[in-house]
From TrEMBL:
<dbReference type="GO" id="GO:0016791">
    <property type="term" value="F:phosphatase activity"/>
</dbReference>
<keyword id="KW-0413">Isomerase</keyword>
<dbReference type="InterPro" id="IPR000150">
    <property type="entry name" value="Cof"/>
</dbReference>
<dbReference type="InterPro" id="IPR023214">
    <property type="entry name" value="HAD_sf"/>
</dbReference>
<dbReference type="GO" id="GO:0005829">
    <property type="term" value="C:cytosol"/>
</dbReference>
<protein>
    <submittedName>
        <fullName>Bifunctional phosphatase/peptidyl-prolyl cis-trans isomerase</fullName>
    </submittedName>
</protein>
<dbReference type="GO" id="GO:0000287">
    <property type="term" value="F:magnesium ion binding"/>
</dbReference>
<dbReference type="InterPro" id="IPR036412">
    <property type="entry name" value="HAD-like_sf"/>
</dbReference>
<dbReference type="GO" id="GO:0016853">
    <property type="term" value="F:isomerase activity"/>
</dbReference>
<dbReference type="Pfam" id="PF08282">
    <property type="entry name" value="Hydrolase_3"/>
</dbReference>
<dbReference type="InterPro" id="IPR006379">
    <property type="entry name" value="HAD-SF_hydro_IIB"/>
</dbReference>
Length: 259
């Protein structure tokens, strides 16, 4: 079999509804590697929030911050930080509306306000400890920021989209939105990954379950939506597998002929 590249989202894809890796998923990923395929992660998370998972699954390559930071075999091959000018504009606009931000660099996360129950609840949904997130509203001036979390309701998004045409807003939680440079997506990060490794689209597979996976599922040759994905996400995928809690990864890999 021709060597393939398989990209996996984390939350709702590798991790089940209890933020655990199903035994069938771990076994399936191990088999892919034993069969000579390249396995990588494509996530909205930061590198420091996937280290334990990477160690567990023995995965050395990843696309983080929804495509803005790519590392292959422990070498950073692509970075796309958000413009400080745009971040200042976002900070001013969100401050007026009293909407908190969390800045995400390659090393840390900093917030514009003290963590509140809305922010805590959003992070808790993906089992992330927020005790290390401290306030530094000027953090974006000190270091490269690859992704910003904006905490607002869905009906409040339109004002941001209208005011800031150079930023991309992708909802990942009912209370929070990923903010990226315009054009930034997992698809862009995967494209850089492919350029570096030489994989062609027809040999690239991707598994995902949420709105930040849409571009990725459309871009690769074989996009697989999890059974727990929203209907809009399933509609753009080439295949739909079972729920993550029902051995969805293993089933999907068998369905597309990789196992």
């Amino acid at each position: 079999m021709t060597r393939k590249l398989i990209m996996f989202d984390i939350d709702g894809t590798i991790l089940d509804h209890e933020s655990k890796v199903p035994a069938s998923t771990k076994e399936a990923i191990q088999l892919l590697k034993e069969n000579g395929h390249e396995v990588a992660i494509a996530t909205g998370r930061s590198p420091y929030f996937i280290s334990e998972l990477r160690a567990l699954l023995e995965i050395d390559s990843f696309v983080c911050f929804n495509g803005q930071y790519v590392e292959i075999d422990n070498e950073v091959i692509y970075k796309n930080p958000t413009s400080k000018e745009y971040l200042k504009e976002l900070f001013d606009f969100s401050s007026e509306k009293e909407h908190p931000l969390v800045y995400m660099s390659a090393e840390k996360m900093k917030s514009t306000v003290e963590m509140n129950h809305v922010m805590e609840g959003s992070f808790a949904s993906i089992n992330i400890d927020t005790s290390h997130i401290h306030v530094n509203s000027s953090y974006f001036n000190e270091i490269e920021i690859y992704q910003t979390l904006l905490f607002c309701q869905e009906h409040e998004e339109a004002a941001y989209r209208k005011s800031m045409k150079d930023l991309n807003f992708i909802r990942w939680h009912q209370n929070s939105v990923d903010v990226l440079p315009m054009g930034g997506s997992k698809a862009m990060g995967i494209e850089r990954f492919m350029e570096h490794t030489g994989f062609s689209k027809e040999n690239v597979y991707a598994f995902g379950d949420n709105f930040n996976d849409v571009e990725m599922l459309q871009f690769v040759g074989h996009g697989v939506a999890m059974g727990n994905a929203p209907e809009q996400v399933k509609q753009v995928a080439r295949y739909v597998t079972k729920d993550v809690g029902d051995d969805g990864i293993a089933h999907g890999l068998e369905m597309v002929g990789l196992l």
